[in-house]
């Protein structure tokens, strides 16, 4: 199949690569969970909560974030099935930010209440959201679709706000970051306002 313009790439191959990257990264989020050997004997409820609470909270946030960005990524590839070299490379940087998610997730899961670690994790989420938003802006260039753009821009503001919360009160930042899960609602509101 010949592309209508020289220099455009079909995004189908990138979609296959992204499925693999998201799948592996989302699976590796569980890698840093404590093993049963962490307990000297059979644990009681207090032991289980003490050992697993922080890592499971971090895993849950990261898994849902990765899932939302996987969904957004595939919607974007459907909207813009062809792209130039710059957009392809920007997509690769976006996928690199996803690959690094298990690293910052492991750090956050171990030291969730530390302000430096919370800021690092929040900054990583902000980088992922910003790259996704820029890719959406490029995909919609010249087209007015606020219902598609709003869900991409909303997490950028939420994660930026979460970084400020992480500086002041790291235990609150996780609740701020969870507001990013309202991104589909932001799209719905934008569609209602424009329609």
UniProtKB/TrEMBL annotation:
Keywords: Ion channel, Ion transport, Membrane, Potassium, Potassium channel, Potassium transport, Transmembrane, Transmembrane helix, Transport. Pfam families: TMEM175. It catalyses: K(+)(in) = K(+)(out). It comes from the Bacteria. Its main location: membrane. GO terms for cellular component: membrane. The keyword Cell division does not apply. GO terms for molecular function: potassium channel activity; proton channel activity. It is found in: Membrane. The chain crosses the membrane at residues 12-31, 51-71, 83-104, 116-139, 148-168, 174-191. It is a multi-pass membrane protein. Belongs to the TMEM175 family. This is DUF1211 domain-containing protein.
